Amino acid sequence: MHGWPSASGSAAPVVMFVGDSFTVGSGPVPTWRTYAAESARLLGWQPVIAGAGGTGYLNKGRVGRTFRQSFEAELAWRPAPDLLIISGGHNDCRWSAESVRRAAEGLVSEARAHWPRTRIVMIGPIWLRDTPRKAYRVRDALSGLAQQEAIPFLDPLNEPRITGTPSGQLLPDRIHPTAEGHFQVARWLTDAIGRLPKGEDHQGP
């Protein structure tokens, strides 16, 4: 488990995710085969996965809710997890980077208000091929917020294993990964989590 402490005292640390179709699954890939589920399986953690395809910090997708609204509906009422991973930004590229940053800040503030002892990690936008410039602007805005809030920020756009995903690990839409592609993202995520310090994060003012 990379030595990660279980603040809840449970047999295994509880990790909650909120994100978009990369997190919850798309096409033939169900939620239990996504990188979120696979990374929890590799780490021996208990996962709770929330969110929906097409959603983001501002983008509501077909389900009509943002990440913050998914957090409120699916996660906030639960006992505090050991770790909350907020993953996304892919679907927010049509918005200004600053407005995405403000929406992300609101979600972080609400999560900390609910669970002041829960650690938070942010994952930036995921693009497996042909990343547009606007995605980097959103990434930079989210990275700046994470630095301000003393939250670890993991950047898929700076990881060749993700941005160079082989064609055989892409679904026909050329956007989302196959189950094998998800597993490769999970391996990157578990490696990145394993490098994070195990001490307490900043918990707000």
Automatic annotation (TrEMBL):
<keyword id="KW-0378">Hydrolase</keyword>
<feature type="domain" description="SGNH hydrolase-type esterase">
    <location>
        <begin position="17"/>
        <end position="182"/>
    </location>
</feature>
<dbReference type="InterPro" id="IPR051532">
    <property type="entry name" value="Ester_Hydrolysis_Enzymes"/>
</dbReference>
<dbReference type="InterPro" id="IPR013830">
    <property type="entry name" value="SGNH_hydro"/>
</dbReference>
<protein>
    <submittedName>
        <fullName>SGNH/GDSL hydrolase family protein</fullName>
    </submittedName>
</protein>
<dbReference type="GO" id="GO:0016787">
    <property type="term" value="F:hydrolase activity"/>
</dbReference>
<dbReference type="Pfam" id="PF13472">
    <property type="entry name" value="Lipase_GDSL_2"/>
</dbReference>
